[in-house]
Write a structure and sequence with these properties.
alpha/beta, seven-stranded mixed β-sheet, Spore Coat Polysaccharide Biosynthesis Protein SpsA, Chain A, 7 strands
């Protein structure tokens, strides 16, 4: 029998792969990595909160790690590691989604650099999915920050989506609907890809009713950089 829900957090290992490359072009590699590490730790706290609030449904969390090297995997704690595998982003999304869907009724894919999320976002995603819909969190740059699915997708589906462009989510929604799936949406949130996004992140963090310890640290970091 399948378990309730799995969350796969897609991450890269700082020091082994470049992280937040557009941000590092402005702030420098050290500052971009510092922001990324804070974001990842905030995600741990968010998912711990999700797990502690769960009543009827259990949430299991995994790190979907970009690198195959064991020395990279050893740096990731708190949750089990699943290698993303080889290939472009679409191939890696497909691999993680299909693998987890074998054991779980619902699979959530999310990035490790979304520190403004909250347990309520995951709960709302699950509520919206009750009718069998896919659930997407639209990013302001045209991508998506979260996807919840509970249905297998045909071979080649993930690879057919253009990523990191302004119409990524629009294309994803269209292709899901072409397959007969309904799609529901969470509120828009910002992706932090470049310096201009940091001020928006500060606003979104300020709207949270209660922040985790590392969300507070990110707020402090933003204030030090005059973005908070």
């Amino acid at each position: 029998m399948k378990k309730s829900a799995a969350v796969a957090v897609f991450v890269k290992t700082p020091g082994f792969s470049p992280v937040k490359t557009r941000l590092s072009a402005s702030l420098g590699i050290d500052e971009a990595e510092a922001f990324y590490r804070l974001s990842v730790q905030a995600m741990v706290e968010i998912l711990r909160d999700v797990q502690s609030r769960a009543v009827a449904n259990q949430w299991d969390a995994y790190w979907a790690v970009a690198e195959a090297a064991p020395e990279c995997h050893s740096q990731w704690h708190d949750f089990p590691v699943i290698p993303q595998g080889d290939g472009e982003l679409g191939q890696r999304l497909a691999a993680i989604y299909s693998r987890l869907l074998q054991d779980y009724q619902q699979v959530v894919l999310v990035g490790g650099d979304c520190p403004q999320l909250s347990a309520q976002v995951f709960e709302e995603a699950q509520r919206l999915a009750r009718d069998g819909s896919f659930v997407l969190g639209p990013a302001r740059d045209g991508g998506f920050y979260l996807l919840l699915g509970q249905t297998a997708l045909p071979p080649g589906f993930w690879e057919s989506i253009p990523y990191s462009v302004g119409h990524t989510m629009e294309t994803l929604v269209m292709k899901l609907m072409d397959l007969g799936h309904s799609v529901r949406f969470l509120p828009h949130l910002s992706d932090v890809d470049q310096v201009a996004d940091l001020a928006v992140l500060g606003v979104e963090l300020s709207r949270l009713g209660q922040r985790t310890r590392h969300q507070e640290k990110i707020c402090d970091w933003l204030r030090q950089k005059s973005y908070g």
